[in-house]
Amino acid sequence: MANGTNASAPLYGYEYYLDYLDLIPVDEDKLGAHKHSVAIAFWVSLAVFVVLLFLVLLSMSWAGSPQARVNFVS
């Protein structure tokens, strides 16, 4: 190429840097909740959701009368 540019490269570009943002300083002592309590609550609620989903699917798989299950197995 005569001008030395890459023809396949886009003509536009985006740069995202954390330096562009002016983050607000936060004092941990003044927070209403412990700094890890949000993450702990998220993971505990996710685990509870998975367990409840498992129990619902398990109960759905056992739906029906016991007689129907016995006839289905044998």
List its salient traits:
mainly alpha, about 70 residues
Short description:
The protein is 45% helix and 0% strand.
Mean pLDDT: 75
Please report the total strand number as a whole number. 0
What's the order of the H and E elements?
HH
Point out poorly predicted stretches.
none
Strand content: under 5%
Span between N and C termini? 77 Å
Question: Major β-sheet, in short?
Answer: none
Query: Into which percent range does the helicity of residues fall?
Result: 40-55%
Report on this structure:
With 74 residues, the protein is mostly helical. Helix content is 45%, strand content 0%. The chain is built from two helices and no strands. It has helices at residues 37-61, 66-73. The longest helix is centred in the middle third of the chain and has 25 residues, at 37-61. The radius of gyration is 28 Å and the shape is elongated. The mean pLDDT is 75.
